Amino acid sequence: MQGALRFKLVKFFISCLFVICFFGVSFAKNETIKIIDQAGREVVLPKKIERIVALHGTLRYVVYLKAFDKVVGIEGFEKQRSIQGNPPVGRAYWNAIADKIDKLPVIGEGGPGKLPDFEKLIAVKPDVVFTHEPDLADVIQKRTGIPVVVLASIGAQGFKIEDVYDVLRFLGILLNRERRAEELIHYLRVCIEDLKKRSERSGRMPTVYVGAVSMRGPHGITSTQANYPPLFWLNLKNVVDELGTKGHVFVDREKILLWNPDYIFIDANGFSLVADDYRKNKTFYQRLKAVKNEKVYTLLPFNFYRPNIELMLINSYFIGKTVHESGFGDLNFEKKAREILKTFLGVDPYDKLISTYPAFKKVKFTEKEILLK
């Protein structure tokens, strides 16, 4: 996928040069440029993009690139204060725009697989619409006459950080935020290298299971994720990876017992479900090595209307500091978490996040219930 995206990016530049070199006259008159988007679609756009609508989770990248001032319409989904019981704080980018979105007109309900209201979308007169969903892009463009650009869907076929780099660069070029895109890419690379070096110092490769993983809502202990991104750079073994799949999956309790991982991390969005389950199935939990050795902790949910990159990175630092104590001994985790949020969002919603979700806590299993320390 990485090679394909890079190839599309090269095609983007070639297309731009072709238009500039051979259609200079019409370029001056119509102020348009032809590109190849990240789904391989040819799209004609205004040369200068000033008005945008970002659908299906693409808004987070607009916020990352500090281009929200160009947004002229927003999904109703982004304005809601609760989605299936999940507060919008969990979409960390929402915290950076919470005081601005109420002023924007709604162009449709929003959400995965949902088309906008075509009349409302036309009414806000965007220069371009962004989406992660290629199946809907042609429909929207045909029905409205507005150019629709598809951005690569991060994590849809297994997460790769290079896909994030490609989206940031691609969108950075379109929105005249190239410098900002490169700043974020550099920051991500520095953090990833830091995580790798710190993890390698311990010389250990413990086994890890991440349970109660959120996916379109909270789930219990058997909900997990193969190729769980926060583990990528930490010299750890995700026991679920042996299944040979990618992404979200439900597993049998017997499989978890068979794996018997050294550490268990629980997605805080599903913690209450795990707590309820423990009251009914104590024997299952008490047989797990991680429970016996008090090696169970909570994490922030980072999948909310697609992956939130900054929260994923924060989880990586927490897991690293928890498991590889020697390599992360000098790290002030909270300070690093706040730095990551501020770098991506320009604001620091750390306090809101941990007051909403019981993350970054040690889980203590008592005779009657489980508690957070």
Question: Topology, pairings included?
Answer:
Blueprint: H1 2-22, H2 24-30, E1 32-36, E2 42-46, E3 52-54, H3 59-64, E4 71-73, H4 76-79, H5 94-97, H6 118-123, E5 128-131, H7 134-144, E6 148-150, H8 161-174, H9 178-202, E7 207-211, E8 223-226, E9 237-238, E10 247-250, H10 253-259, E11 263-267, H11 271-280, H12 282-286, H13 289-292, E12 296-299, H14 309-323, H15 333-345, H16 350-356, E13 363-365, E14 370-372
Parallel strand pairs: 3-4, 3-5, 5-6, 7-9, 7-11, 11-12
Antiparallel strand pairs: 1-2, 8-10, 13-14
Helix pairs in contact: 1-8, 8-9, 9-14, 14-15
List keywords for this structure.
single chain, 373 residues, alpha/beta, Rossmann fold, four-stranded parallel sheet, 16 helices, disordered N terminus
CATH class of one domain reads Alpha Beta
Provide the residue-averaged pLDDT.
90
Return the string of H and E elements: HHEEEHEHHHEHEHHEEEEHEHHHEHHHEE
What is the percent of helical residues? 40-55%
Provide the spatial order of strands within the biggest beta sheet: 4-3-5-6
CATH fold name of one domain, please? Rossmann fold
CATH architecture group name of one domain = 3-Layer(aba) Sandwich
Which structural class do the helices and strands define?
alpha/beta
CATH H-level superfamily of one domain: Nitrogenase molybdenum iron protein domain
Main pleated sheet: 4 strands, parallel
Given as residue ranges, the uncertain stretches (5+ residues, pLDDT < 50) are 1-29
How far is it from the N-terminal to the C-terminal residue, by CA?
41 Å
Q: Count all strands and give the number.
A: 14
Strand content: 5-15%
Basic shape: elongated
The number of helical runs is 16
Q: Radius of gyration in whole Å, from Cα?
A: 22 Å
